[in-house]
Amino acid sequence: MKKKYYILIALSLFFSSAFSQTIVTGGIFTNTTWTLANSPYLMTGNVVVFPGVTLTIEPGVEIRVKNNGNNGTRYYLETRGTINMVGQSGALITIKADTGTTTIGTWEGIRIKNSQGGNINYNYVSISNSIQVFSYDGAVPSYINLTQSEFNYNYYAINVGLELKAENCRFKGNENTISGWSLYEFKNCVFDSNSVALSIYATELKIDSCVFKNNYAAIVLNSSVFSGMQVKNSLFTNNNIAFNYPNNGEIRDCEFLSNRIAIGNANSVIIKKCLLEGNELAVAASVGTTVDSCEIINNQVGVAIGYIAFSQPTPIIQNNRICFNTDFNIDNQTDLNLFIPTNCFCETDSTLVEAKIFDGYDDVAKGLISYAIFDTTCTTVVKMVNKSPGTSSISEIEASTISIFPNPATDILNIANSTNLTQVELFNINGQMQLKAVLLPGNNAIEISKLGQGIYFARIANNVGAIKTVRITKL
Fold first, then answer.
1. What region, left, alpha or beta, does residue 15 occupy, with left being phi > 0 and alpha being psi -120 to 50 degrees?
2. CA 302/CA 278 separation, integer angstroms
3. 3-state secondary structure of 267
4. Phi/psi of residue 8, each to 5°?
5. CA-wise closest residue to 135 among 108, 116, 173
6. CB atoms within 10 A of CB 408
């Protein structure tokens, strides 16, 4: 019996230690530290730090907020003095609901009374389940730097003043994750299952190596990005809207997979070397947008071109593989004739290519799309389809192989004439003729040093009217 008695005492001490917690509520009137040794802390009511007083919360401390249910207003932590809550890598300071840890709004959040000198210093934190993580009765902090922090299942997570930099942070299950008019910089961050991840007015936007997944809206830019936008090396997957209204910058080396809308309403932005696959709409390109060297495959619609007024710069769609999209590879939603000859559609049958291009042939209210048909390797043009003679003088006639070198070229383009070639015409990607030369027997050295760098098309004709079109890169 004595042995059993000691076992019961040991078990009692174990469970007492395992479930011990420090109850906190009411006012804090002297400098106080919430220590890791006394963690977790359970807020059973509102906690207020009074003016001139500092509450310091040690790294690794966990604070749980009791759900007030229908008995009154939600509990809050308020500072009229100072709260210092800076954790460490591997020892975040955690504030969350005592129960319902995936529920939004079980407690109010942290109130900062600027009007009474209240302020808060925080980093390496994990804050969940609030209505508004930080609310101020005065100005929002101008500069916020976050490292290895988490904000989960809040209604409003972060409102920014002038600048927010976040690295290795995670945002999950929030209603409105980040908002404000600011400079934003995100690196190695994850935005998961938020209603809206970023709905921002950006003076500048930099995103590098981030993941946006399962959000209703991942990024929505509410105005023009004044100082420019750079989004690179990031993954957007399973979002309803991945990126809406990108502008004044570049999206490079990103993957957009299985979104409803991958890139919508792109305006004056360069989209380069991206993979867009499995989306309902891959790219909606508008005024002044360039889509360059992308893989746009297996979407419902590949590239939709629209919302361009007279005299505005038309999109440049070049050097892409736009293939196997179920409805359309190209959907021209404007009444403008467009010339996009550097894109490969992975089909050599002109009937199959045409079936995936929606333009004036399908709806007379739309403009016409002129394009090229490549071989199966997407390296050689075998046919030009020119629906609008005004865009260029390039014919649709196929021709025999010719010898043209070097390619890429810098100053001189050589054309070996052994098959009765008569002339060469060089066009830019907009179908505008840049030069014309007569071809003589033997080698012809064509001077191209004055042309700008980029993609050109050499149209070479022989004495019986056959034509060969070759894509040239000018360095």
1. alpha
2. 10
3. strand
4. -65, -40
5. 108
6. 11
| DSSP secondary structure code for residue 389 in this structure | G
* Alpha helices (runs of H) in 325-457, residue ranges in sequence order: 350-355
User: CA-CA distance, 258 to 235, in Å (whole number)?
Assistant: 11
The C-alpha atoms of residue 254 and residue 231 are separated, in whole angstroms, by: 8
Place of tokens 């149209």: 459
State pLDDT tens for residues 120-177: 999 999 999 999 999 999 888 899 999 999 999 999 999 998 999 999 999 999 999 9
Round the CA-based radius of gyration of the chain to a whole number and report it: 31
Residue at 319: amino acid letter? N
Q: What pTM was computed for the model?
A: 0.82
Exposure of 98 in the CB half-sphere (CA atoms within 13 A): 18
Euclidean distance between CA atoms 359 and 246, whole angstroms: 25
Maximal C-alpha separation, the chain: 114
291 and 317 in contact (C-beta within 8 Å)? yes
- pLDDT confidence band for 465 (50 / 70 / 90): low
Residue 210, amino acid: C
Measure CA of the first residue to CA of the last residue in the chain; give whole Å. Answer: 92
Nearest to 77 by CA among 87, 66, 89, 91: 66
Q: Which of 271, 430, 474, 435 is nearest to 341 (CA)?
A: 430
- Residue type at 312? Q
Q: How far apart are CA 328 and CA 469, in angstroms?
A: 25
Residue 304 corresponds to which amino acid? A
Phi, psi of 313 (to 5 degrees): -65, 130
CA angle 313, 317, 318 (to 5 degrees): 125
* 182 neighbors 164 (Cβ within 8 angstroms): yes
Closest CA to 161 of 125, 200, 118, 189: 200
For residue 190, give the amino acid letter.
Answer: V
What does the alpha-carbon distance between residue 373 and residue 346 come to, in Å, rounded to a whole number?
Answer: 8
- Rounded CA-CA distance 27/472 in Å is 75
Query: What six digits make up the tokens of 214?
Result: 């399962």
Q: Helix (H) and strand (E) counts for the chain?
A: 2, 47
Show the tokens assigned to 281: 């709409």
Task: Report which of residues 408 and 186 the model is more confident about.
Answer: 186
In angstroms, the CA 141 to CA 166 distance is 15
